Automatic annotation (TrEMBL):
EC number(s) stated in the UniProt entry for this protein: 2.3.2.27
Protein name: RING-type E3 ubiquitin transferase
Gene Ontology molecular function terms on file: ubiquitin protein ligase activity
GO BP terms, alphabetized: protein ubiquitination
SUPFAM superfamilies: ARM repeat, RING/U-box
UniProt pathway: Protein modification; protein ubiquitination
PANTHER family per UniProt: U BOX DOMAIN-CONTAINING, U-BOX DOMAIN-CONTAINING PROTEIN 16
Length: 687
């Protein structure tokens, strides 16, 4: 807190601070005027009122600081009064800190931690009463009515208590009983559920959504005592269930963004905030919290890549390359950029503190996974929504439910499993052909989010008409967003080897992806190329891709900075798995790949070098001469050997050897030809 330089300055600080404290209410009042405020402790309501009365004293004293012309005059408080007011200033700062802390928390947080919160505020109230008691009121030039007000205020402060309101304790017991009921797998009675949440001050969808967001933020922050974290995790899931059961599904916002909906906001798709592509994990498509670099140089969120490797995969999910080792290196530079972006957009970022939050995040994640009540509530929510979708009487109602299903499936493997187990996939597939553009986007996005779970991939691929529906969206989707998410679904499904072949065998998958890669906007081209890259990870698919024109499409795309990385990786994958001849025969292939070596990103340069190595190893291609004739190619290769990624350096070294061998062979051939000519000339002269 500041240290006022004068008594007048001290009084001004006291006045401003007292007005600030008096504006607080704990917990924050509900938005609905019909909801009664939650009363946890008497001080939570009385202290702001008492401090407001105290501000009248500071206002009265400040009147003596100015003359009749409203100019500051010399002013000095009695020494004891000045010392008391400075101590009161400290008390008010502590009260403000407590009230700010509580006001930012959920109502459930305040209810569960009522005792320690009430004790902290009671301690400050006792201190405030003590300093007011020793304040030399008789030495202050204040009217008698203000003196009477101070005496009354002192009596009120002395009646302060840290006791929690019995009604709040009763509500907390009822909430814990509700959690136990849900944990047993019993669906709670709607009337009882509504009564509990009304007492909590939640009586509409907006209040419920706000409480869920606040509660989840409290859990992520690790602010609650360990004993209450499991109950808070469980209640967050129950609140989400109650939001749908009691208040109905919400109407989706109109959406005009061109990006892939399933990959936008890490917290709430309703916000529809465009997350930069480099900040999204290629596996989950969510904002990365703890980016890690694998052996190939690609970056993934720690949780996603650990699960990928733990499930037995030994390849890079994005590039398809074999991982030389399984070590993960933190990408701290990217993490700092993501943290700054979240701060600029007023979004929470769990990974902002590398040391203090890491263990708390891990503990909270473990609690969320192991919390049976939370899992049962999520299962009930999924079942309820799927039942609502099956009974939806119109397109608008179906759209609302599908919108909620996609949000539910966006977060957490358990939610994805529950939604699929409830039978959502067969109900979503017909909606891929809906004439309603918004419903189609929501349906394909929900399918994308479900496909992230490996068990759901099998359910989708074995569902009748699933691949045909995805192809329909790719070819005829009403919005580019729908097409992008359909391409991302192909990418997700093709991470399983057998499905990669099955998708490529479909007569139209490769065709529509390449059409999208050629004619779509940049974000669509990027998603299409990523899906094609995944299909190119299987040698059996190379022939179909080449016949479909993948080489030409990729060569066109390498000139676009937004898509160059994926396009170069596709060329490298195709060349490495039997398509080198097709790349070699493509017009301008070497020139474009060398251009990428000069100006591309690290991954693009690495892929371009790998593609050049593959095509130059074809002895009959004659491309080495074309490569060697490129101006400054020796310097480009040399620079890549010194400053590229580990794999890029290896490929550059191989390119250098290929060029040197070619140069030696050309020189030897020239020498032999010269020698032969010399011998012929000598023979002629002798004759």
């Amino acid at each position: 807190p500041p240290n006022p330089s004068s008594d007048a300055d001290l009084l001004r600080h006291l006045l401003f601070l007292s007005r600030d404290v008096s504006s607080h209410q704990i917990p924050s009042p509900p938005a609905s005027s019909s909801s009664s405020p939650l009363r946890v402790n008497r001080n939570f309501f009385s202290v702001p009122h008492n401090v407001k009365q105290l501000s009248l004293l500071f206002e009265e004293l400040l009147l003596t600081v100015r003359d009749d012309d409203d100019r500051c005059v010399d002013f000095a408080l009695p020494r004891l009064a000045s010392l008391c007011f400075r101590e009161i200033l400290l008390v008010l700062h502590r009260l403000k800190a407590h009230f700010d802390h509580c006001s930012a928390r959920s109502r459930v947080f305040v209810l569960f931690l009522a005792e320690p919160l009430a004790a902290e505020i009671h301690e400050q109230v006792v201190d405030l009463a003590t300093f007011l008691d020793i304040l030399p009121v008789a030495e202050l030039r204040i009217p008698e009515d203000v003196r009477d007000l101070l005496r009354l205020l002192l009596l009120q402060l002395r009646r302060s208590s840290s006791r929690v309101d019995p009604a709040a304790l009763s509500l907390r017991r009822d909430i814990l009983e509700l959690i136990a009921l849900v944990e047993s797998g019993t669906v709670p009675d709607h009337a009882a559920l509504q009564g509990i949440f009304r007492r909590l001050g939640i009586d509409d969808s907006w209040n419920c959504r706000h409480e869920i967001d606040s509660l989840e933020r409290d859990i992520a922050d690790g602010a609650a005592a360990d004993r209450w974290v499991p109950a808070m995790v469980a209640l967050a899931s129950i609140l989400r269930y109650a939001k749908y059961v009691l208040f109905g599904t919400s109407t989706p916002r109109l959406d005009t963004s061109a990006g892939a909906d399933g990959k936008k906001s890490p917290f709430s798709e309703a916000e529809d905030l465009a997350v930069p592509a480099d900040f999204r994990c290629p596996i989950s498509l969510d904002l990365m919290r703890d980016p890690m670099v694998v052996a190939t140089g690609q970056t993934y969120d720690r949780d996603c890549i650990v699960r990928w490797i733990g499930s037995g995969h030994a390849t890079c999910p994005k590039s398809g390359q074999a991982l030389a080792h399984l070590e993960l290196v933190p990408n701290r530079a990217l993490k700092n950029l993501i943290s700054c972006w979240c701060r600029d957009n007023n979004l929470p970022f769990d990974g902002a503190d590398d040391t203090s939050n890491k263990q708390a995040d891990a503990d909270n994640a473990t609690t969320a996974v192991a919390n049976k009540a939370a899992l049962e509530a999520a299962r009930m929510t999924a079942s309820f929504l799927v039942e609502e979708l099956a009974a939806a009487p119109c397109t608008e109602a179906a759209h609302r439910v599908v919108h909620e299903l996609r949000l539910l499936a966006k977060h957490g493997s358990n939610n994805r499993a529950f939604v699929a187990e409830a039978g959502a996939i067969p109900l979503l597939l017909p909606l891929l052909r809906s004439d309603d553009a918004g419903l189609q986007v929501s349906a394909v996005t929900a399918l994308l989010n479900l496909s992230i779970l490996e068990a759901n991939k099998r359910l989708i691929m074995h569902a009748d008409g699933a691949v045909d529906g995805i192809v329909h969206v790719l070819a005829e989707g009403a919005k580019w967003r729908a097409k992008e998410n359909a391409a991302a679904t192909v990418l997700s499904l093709s991470s399983i080897h057998s499905y990669r072949r099955r998708l490529a065998r479909h007569p139209r998958v490769v065709e529509v992806l390449l059409q999208m890669a050629r004619h779509g906007p940049a974000s669509s081209k990027k998603d299409a190329m990523a899906a094609v890259l995944s299909l190119a990870g299987d040698r059996e698919n190379t022939g179909r891709l080449v016949e479909g024109g993948v080489v030409e499409a990729a060569l066109e795309a390498v000139g676009e900075p937004e898509v160059a990385e994926e396009a170069a990786a596709v060329l490298a994958a195709v060349a490495r798995r039997g398509g080198a001849e097709a790349v070699a025969k493509a017009k301008g292939a070497v020139a474009r790949l060398v251009g990428l070596l000069r100006r591309g990103s690290d991954w693009a340069r690495e892929s371009a070098a790998a593609a050049l190595v593959a095509v130059c190893r074809l002895s009959e291609s004659g491309l080495v001469a074309e490569l060697a004739a490129m101006p400054g190619i020796e310097w480009v290769i040399w620079e890549l050997m010194g400053a590229g990624t580990e794999r890029a350096r290896r490929k550059a070294a191989t390119l250098s050897r290929i060029c040197r061998r070619w140069a030696v062979a050309v020189e030897a051939e020239r020498t032999a030809r010269f020698s032969a000519m010399s011998i012929t000339t000598s023979s002629t002269t002798v004759a």
